[in-house]
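Posting this for the archive.
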Amino acid sequence: MENNFKSWMANPISKIFIGTNLVFAVLFFVSVPSFVKEYVTRDAVSIGGKKYDLRDVKESSPIAYSKFQTEYKSLLKNTFGEFAQDKLFELVAKDKNIKPADVLNEGLVLREPSEEEILTVYMSNKEQLGGKSLAETKDKIVGFLKNQQEQEHSRNKYREIISKYPVDFLIKEPDIVRVTVDEKNNPSIGPKDAKITVIEFSDFECPFCKRSQEVNRQLREKYKGQIRWVFRDFPLPFHQDAMYAHMAANCSIDDGKYWEVFNILFENSGNLSVSNVDDLVLQAGVSQNKYKSCMVNKAKIKSEIEADIQDGQKVGVSGTPAFFINGIFVSGALPFENFDEIIQKELKQ
């Protein structure tokens, strides 16, 4: 509730707007688009008099082609989502003889929030209110709570609409683009014969990488015994402390403490100074003597990390986090559902 209140406080006069995102949340079981040959070959680039189309991109730059498909899918979702919303409103409005703009508010009766509800919001967001008293902020809190009532009413209305007017998105599946990515004996979790192998290129200092770790843990837990997770180093050059942190993590492998160090480094990704990294490694249970002995040979460790970076760049990795699920490229700290959809399809293969 705290984050919702903060967003609402930034624009307290805003009214309910249920748009494409809510339609997706209720409706979308969408498959990725696929071009028919006409569209694949229509758009092209001419280089030195020779014409290249998307088939050439797919063959020589599969990651670029995969990114193109992802962006095109997003565009399709937005376009069809807005269109579907308008049509649904028109159908309901005609059926009930009301205006389309009134569809979501039909039957809405707002109740006055209780004193307990108001106090709970105030106490949870006291710091954001700049020291103002409950009396000074009460009207805004009441507005926020009523806005929540409107949102819940609108969500319920959408569920009613969808149950009466089913929506199916008839979008064809594309050819799956797979990239061969070597593991090269990097640290892993899960059985070697797992049907699903996820290779992650990540950076201990990257905030998006840190955010993605909770989703990664959820996936490993849900598909325990079915998934193998491989971690490859990809410290970004503008993260000044990242390289040392990755070197330290690699020096915990021989002591069998890699994943303990992995977790504690991500937990402290905003503070990876050399001295703190050294302390964190020891906190994770790594032998001090073994750690110091390993870190003496910094050039060798660094070269192994740079090899990971080069391998990542060869398959199209330019930022972190980047994932390959059985060779299928996924870029960024995306929600659990994005990964889960791909994994479920792979398990059915």
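Residues 13-36 have pLDDT under 50 and may be disordered. Residues 251 and 294 are 6 Å apart (CA to CA).
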